[in-house]
Amino acid sequence: MQDLYQEIILDHYRRPQGRGLREPFDSQVHHVNPTCGDEIDLRVHLEDRDGLPYVADVSYAGQGCSISQASASVMFESLADKPLTEAFESLARFQEMIQSKGENPGDEDTMGDAVAFAGVAKYPARIKCALLPWLAWKDAVLRASDASSTDKDDQ
Ligand code: ZN
What we know:
Radius of gyration: 15 Å
Bound molecules: zinc ion
CATH architecture: Alpha-Beta Complex
Largest sheet: 4 strands, antiparallel
Distance between the termini: 54 Å
Mean pLDDT: 93
Structural class: alpha+beta
């Protein structure tokens, strides 16, 4: 299982999904993990689809260790083109697993490739690497939501 998980992480590192900064976007953030030197620029584009807020796109560019880069690719797969509530649930599941010190192995049915990071939970130094893209996404969404509620106030 560990070998399979390492293979999934390496695969995302070599062929990152959704990489590159795209337009349009509602907010952009820059996050760093100074303990490892990982960096990410991340943009989110939110969209209203039949009254349901959607994460229409998440685009990113970054550099750093294989864990942080692979995690950005998995974050994109897990959160982009999803209803916002579903994306927040995926974030919560990932955070819970990665902060469980190995107690929570994750659930492949609901988490997809994100379960491959379960082993990272046993290495405290790498937890921040894995979380960096996900927390950048959360920050960007909160900023985008603030911006859109300000827009509505203006109308
Ligand atoms: Zn790192």
